[in-house]
Amino acid sequence: MSIFDGLKFRRVNSIIHNLDPRIKFIYVIGVFIAALLFLQIIPLVALFLLQLPFVFLARVQRQWMRSLRGAAFLAGFIFFINIVTIFLGNNYTVTPSNIEGALSMTLRFVVLVESFSVFFLTTSPDHLGLALEQSRVPYEFAFAFTTAVRFVPVLAEEAQTIMDAQKARGLELEKGNLLKRIRNYIPILIPLIVSAIRRSLELAEAMESRAWGACKKRTNLYTLRLHKGDYVLLGITAIIVIGAIYAYFYVSIPTL
Amino acid sequence: MIEILDIHYSYPSKIEALRGVSLTIKDGEFVAIMGQNGAGKSTFVKHFNGLLKPSVGSVKVDGVETTKSSVAALARSVGFVFQNPDHQLFSETVEAEVGFALKNFGFDAKIIEERITAMLELLSLSQYRKTSPFLLSGGERKRVALASVLACDPKMLVLDEPTIGQDHEQKEKLQQFILKLQEQGKTVVAVTHDVEFVAECNPRVVLMREGKIVADGEGHQILTDPAMLEAASIVLPQIAQVFTKLSAAGLPKDIIDISEAKSVLLKALEKRKQ
């Protein structure tokens, strides 16, 4: 469950935490687009390094490392699958550029995890909800989204309890071949889904009994306003995206 | 037999849940572990079947260190029923749910069948054999969870909050059921807040507070000691409250059980008549 730890918000006072969530989200999308443009190692490494200052400015290195460690398995899996499919589809040979391609695919995933991790680590669920509302997303949807984000750690904890309960009945998760191991997770997933649905129904009842949705027009105690830092970040995002598009069309990027 | 020697346990979040706990539970004992929320009760009993391993100290189940054994192996001798049955029910039928652990331990199909029948009979669930466990009421689901653990016939049974969500009749059944298990020589450990339930069963009581054991002894001694109970945020059982107030009239204080209370009171009334 360490990957969830890497997404859990922690209240720290830093420049990054105080940025407007909307701009931060635009930044994440910018990085996302830039990462999808390239399949060469060098620009992806650059994108990866580009985000390190944010991590350090936000002082979330530890949690951020944890999310990367959580993603390591999936990253390894992506690399492995890429290499295997190239190997099988290429008359059982692998060229250095094939390896670069597979590495880039993996790195692309790592860059995405990295940027989303920074976003979620530095944005409180309340801010996220505010951002959605002020972007004219209907309140019902904004609320559903923030509630979902808020319940991730709760579900992670519940998954741990369920695993304990099934282990106590002799379930061995790490036993058997790949197919068996996947099947081993059924006794974990079903109770988790059932209790999540039960919990959501209970939450809905509790909210309705406290007059949720009684007023059509809502006001907020806090409103989001853009500050200097937000414009700077917006500028950085624009530079990244424009730079990436320029490099994509006009620069021949050296490969391995 | 479980021997626990000076164990400490800290969660990854650095919260120290256990700070030096030692306890020996002999075969066939019935132990109630009580204490306020966050006293470390659940953390403590999770060491009994190796779900948690102590940071310091040792836990031995029948002479085997839990650190040298897997949970699955320990689960054969230590059954663990979790508080919330919804954390373990997943099968399509009650029958399959009860047979799950037996299948994991590789029992014969025939034995599994027999055990399921016996367990459903024992916990009055026979009519739900082919029903989905999700359609049952809370109390029934709790009994299915209990049946699914008992089906493997563990030597020792750990129950986490067994009385929550059970009506009075079911509680009484549970009490008789625990007594029956004890007659078979099984060890039962119950984590509970239900002081009336404990008073009725009169087991050995272990009180915990802030990760330590603060009292350990007979039910009628511990449950009639107001200072001790207050330290663990537990109120006296109602009968004990009555007898504490009556102690000025020369009645004994350490009464927690209805039948005992009745005979003591009758005796006192007789005396007064004479």
Report on the structure:
The complex is a heterodimer of chains A (256) and B (274). Chain A is mainly α. Chain A folds into two domains: 147 residues, no CATH class; 78 residues, no CATH class. Chain A contains eleven helices and no strands. In chain A, helix 2 packs antiparallel against helix 6 and helix 2 packs parallel to helix 11. The model of chain A has no long low-confidence stretch (mean pLDDT 86). Chain B has a domain of 75 residues. In chain B, helix 3 packs across helix 4, helix 3 runs parallel beside helix 5 and helix 4 packs across helix 5. Chains A and B meet through helix 8 and helix 10 of A and helix 2 and helix 3 of B.
Structural class of chain B: alpha/beta
Number of alpha- plus pi-helical segments of chain A: 11
Largest sheet of chain A: none
User: In percent, how helical is the residue content of chain B?
Assistant: 25-40%
Low-confidence stretches of chain A: none
Q: Average pLDDT value of chain B?
A: 90
Overall tally of domains of chain A? 2
In oligomeric terms, what are we looking at?
heterodimer
* Straight-line N-to-C gap of chain A: 36 Å
Radius of gyration of chain B: 20 Å
Q: Helical stretch count of chain B?
A: 11
Strand order of the largest sheet of chain B: 6-7-8-3-9-10
Helix content of chain A: over 70%
What is the N-to-C order of secondary-structure elements of chain A (H for helix, E for strand)? Answer: HHHHHHHHHHH
**Mean pLDDT figure of chain A:** 86
* Distance N to C terminus of chain B: 51 Å
What is the H/E string of chain B?
Answer: EEEHEEHEHHHEHEHEEHHHH
Low-confidence stretches of chain B: none
How many strand segments of chain A? 0
What's the SSE blueprint?
The complex is a heterodimer of chains A (256) and B (274).
Chain A: H1 2-5, H2 21-37, H3 41-50, H4 52-58, H5 61-89, H6 96-122, H7 125-134, H8 139-167, H9 178-184, H10 186-208, H11 228-250
Helix pairs in contact in A: 2-6, 2-11, 3-6, 5-6, 7-8, 8-10
Chain B: E1 2-10, E2 16-25, E3 30-35, H1 41-45, E4 56-61, E5 64-65, H2 71-75, E6 78-81, H3 94-104, H4 109-122, H5 138-150, E7 156-160, H6 168-183, E8 187-191, H7 195-201, E9 204-209, E10 212-218, H8 219-222, H9 226-231, H10 238-246, H11 258-273
Parallel strand pairs in B: 3-8, 3-9, 6-7, 7-8
Antiparallel strand pairs in B: 1-2, 1-4, 4-5, 9-10
Helix pairs in contact in B: 3-4, 3-5, 4-5
